[in-house]
Fold:
Amino acid sequence: MGRSVTISTPIPTLEEVGKRLKMSKARQRRLIEIVRGDRNGQSPERQRYSFAEEFMLEHSNSRNGDSGFRNQSNAATDSEPRKKSKRAATS
Amino acid sequence: MPPPVSTDAVFVNIPYDEGFRRLYLAYIVGLTQLGLEPRATLGIPGGERRLDRILALIQSCRYSIHDLSRVQLDRNPPRTPRFNMPFELGLSVSWAKLNPSEHTWFVFEARARRVQKSLSDLDGSDPNIHDGTVEGIMREICNAFVRNRAARPSVPEMMRTYRGISRKLNEIKAAAGARSVFEARIFDDLCFAAKAAISDA
Structure:
């Protein structure tokens, strides 16, 4: 039996994780779409976003002049410039 | 001056190769589901400052996991074992000795009693044995990091998240334009995707 520690810090929200990773909203949306399988007409049974996430994404889009994240062409566009691919480190 | 410690951050010290891909994904999903923040040396370039940056990464993490299960020689000539994992464990142990309230390290292994042979200096420190399986990684992460009952995910829940992300792995990789899952950008994408999958459950 290995050692163990007790964790009492709050579990971060999806928004907090995206912010910590410094991800663009477009990239977050793209990943959410991939994970939740809601592209190409594959609508999930449940609502895709929580109210808080929806508000956050809509608010962000309206500030950027984006007509809304439900627009597939916008949703599929990652406006963040691609970082130069770093070589895989070998640990 | 060491960097500030992130109380949820876990330095994940594992081999980066295709043979370890499933367990790599298991660490990311499992830690994310526990509300922790996996961090890795992916993206740290080579050169003389690499060691400084690895040390800074360890210092910024409240916890570290050192998977010492890769003890085999690699296939590429000249065939050598990988010493990076035990080396980074040594850095973490030193840092934790000097700052016991700021760092806690864990050793993970696939086989029981092998560490006593491969790294006998660790005698007296029981490793977490994951049996080389995804489920074993989830189980041992839960054993190492204990949350109160209300916030504690079960291993089957973590396995469901793992399978969901595993199915989407190629799509996530393609969306990033990455060739390998062992790239810094993909590491971040997988952390976020795992969180998105958990939030959707």
Observations:
- Chain B has one domain: 6-200.
- Chain B touches chain A through 65 residues (CB under 8 Å).
- The domain at 6-200 of chain B is CATH 3.40.50.10140 (Rossmann fold).
- Chain B has seven helices and six strands.
